[in-house]
Amino acid sequence: MSDADILKNYRDSKNRSAQIKILAELNGCDPTDIKVALKRAGLLPSEMPSEKVVPSIPIPVSIVKSLKKRALDIQAEQQAFYNSIENMKKKIDELSTEHLEIVNFIGESEE
């Protein structure tokens, strides 16, 4: 592919970043070679923006300890609620059974 074809193909592409790789594959060369040709033609800034890199910032030990404690507190609170829900379900079952027994008894002894 001629330089003119590479430049036209690059200009016409919707995703220019991806097109650099595609052009390199089509031409059997490294993407760096395509970038050099594009820079020479003025189609590419001298430095292409790279992918965003989130810097690794160490978390202070005191914050880690505080967050771990909070996570354990939340877990304990959740467990307490789950236990309450289970107790409520048992109580509802007991009351439902008792209610059914009463209704059946009253129904059998109607006058």
Outline the structure in words.
It is a single chain. The chain is mostly helical and 111 residues long. It has two domains: 3-40, no CATH class; 57-111. It has helices at 3-12, 16-27, 31-40, 61-108. The longest helix is centred in the C-terminal third of the chain and has 48 residues, at 61-108. The mean pLDDT is 86.
Structural class: mainly alpha
Strand content: under 5%
Question: How many structural domains does the protein architecture include?
Answer: 2
Give the fraction of residues assigned to helices.
Answer: over 70%
Task: Assign an overall shape.
Answer: elongated
Sheet with the most strands, sense and barrel status: none
Radius of gyration: 35 Å
Report the average pLDDT across residues. 86
Helix count, DSSP H or I runs of 4 or more residues: 4
SSE string: HHHH
Number of strands: 0
How many angstroms does the end-to-end distance come to?
102 Å
Low-confidence spans: pLDDT under 50, at least 5 residues? none
